[in-house]
Specification:
Chain lengths: 281, 281
């Protein structure tokens, strides 16, 4: 039995992957195994992976209520506006992971000025941060992204040595919502360029950084229409958990969204954020 | 009196520029002055530069017949298919300007393999060539293009030093059909990256390289429909002058285009290629 991936390549159906997906979505091992059974009974040769994902959502919703309130995280990331929202989202994410983060700015290199998406400091080290967003979450970041990062780092470091900027830099980190191509990973590793992509590094991928701190973006919510979301984003609210932290009445004043709508969203947000218990059960 | 450029900025109408354009299109100084007079009489405040170009073509066609057979060269370049036609066009252009040119290939750098559009040798020096095509001829090549070129050059040179390739490289040349942004030019000059763009370098721009050797692409011809052009390109014919060099009967066999059509195109091609006399008159 084969499945068809988004890039139209085929690979064998793998039940263990379904189990893993369910666990990441908040299912216990027992529930995950049940869902995987139900999915296996419904797949057919050549089925597309996004169809499988829909079946998982449908089945899992019976056991893990929060699944009914959100979409696939990877797709949610692809829906964030690249500028300024995704860049800001990444700065928040780094801050929550104990980086000291400065916002986007212009750095004078040896040859020219470069626009940098953020500067992040941790354990006495300073990194330039390049954020790369793809609205198609199947598009890997390619060699160009890392070659540009390399040239930026070189120019910024030489700018410091020449006294043109006062930022002693130890490295550069690329953060992107998709994979990096194999070629791009090889180049990055060879040149000491760090990266945080959807799946890698294994111990600290973008997905893990989001899930470990429950830093889900608003686009994660299933029942949030785009108009309401834009109002929240324009008012500076980017995260699901901010819907819970702030009083609906306050948030309503700040955004112009009705209190009733905000109460409903708060309910959905709570369901998503409280699912840790079901993961641990 | 102001004119509106393609990027929507305005600048004062400049009659001397009209004269220059006409001379480049094959007019004598005397004819160019006449045409500039006629254009000046018809412009109005805020007129778009592409409208001015149309008036020039119209007026100039009365004196320089070849103008009736071709379009604006810059637009013609934008219409060439980027891959493989524009890349091949640039390789021909470099060859005709005394470079020894090898076709596109993969070079093993220190970290990864890089796809190079050409390698060009002249006066004992070896250059990597990066070709950049924009289908909108008003889009300047930006900083990314030169930063990528820098990283490619560094990796290729270090690959040679590490014994991973056998190509002793002296530099890299970017060739593009548009301008380079100011930022990109500054970076290129600072890093010793060479470039040939539409207008620069002043003594050897892409335009001059084409005009000096009359290496007009087929897209330059006004009366050539796209289907016929595709047949020629697929058969390996890219240049206007190739229509004159080969017998219509031979070319017809090779392309499947009727001899009558080829004879008509040959006539147009001759008109364009013979206009040197009118420039010198």
């Amino acid at each position: 039995m084969y499945v068809t991936k988004a890039d139209r390549t085929r690979q064998p159906f793998n039940k263990a992957k379904i189990v893993g997906t369910c666990v990441r979505m908040g299912a216990s091992r027992r529930v995950a195994a049940k869902v995987a059974e139900a999915v296996e009974a419904r797949v057919y040769d050549g089925i597309e992976t996004n169809k499988i994902l829909r079946i998982i959502h449908q089945q899992l919703g019976k056991y893990v209520p929060s699944v009914r309130f959100h979409i696939d995280l990877r797709r949610a990331l692809s829906l964030i506006r690249p500028t300024p929202d995704f860049e800001r989202f990444i700065r928040i994410l780094l801050r929550e992971h104990d980086y000291e983060v400065s916002p986007n700015q212009i750095i004078r290199g040896k040859c020219v000025e470069h626009e940098i998406d953020a500067i992040a400091r941790k354990d006495g080290k300073t990194f330039l941060v390049e954020v790369k967003h793809h609205s198609n979450h199947h598009t890997p970041a390619g060699l160009d992204v890392v070659r540009i990062a390399r040239a930026v780092l070189e120019d910024a470091v030489e700018g410091f040595e020449a006294g043109l900027n006062s930022l002693k830099i130890d490295g550069i980190i690329i953060v992107c919502n998709t994979k990096l191509s194999k070629h791009a990973r090889e180049y990055a590793e060879c040149r000491g360029i760090l990266y945080i992509s959807w799946k890698l590094p294994l111990d600290n991928s973008l997905r893990m950084m989001i899930e470990n701190k429950k830093l889900y973006p608003l686009t994660f919510l299933k029942n949030l229409n785009m108009g309401t979301r834009r109002k929240l984003e324009l008012a500076g609210t980017l995260l699901v958990k901010e819907l819970v932290e702030e009083q609906p009445s306050e948030l309503s004043k700040r955004t112009g969204i009705s209190i009733d709508t905000l109460r409903q969203m708060r309910h959905d947000a709570r369901e998503i954020l409280s699912r840790e218990e079901s993961i641990l059960s």
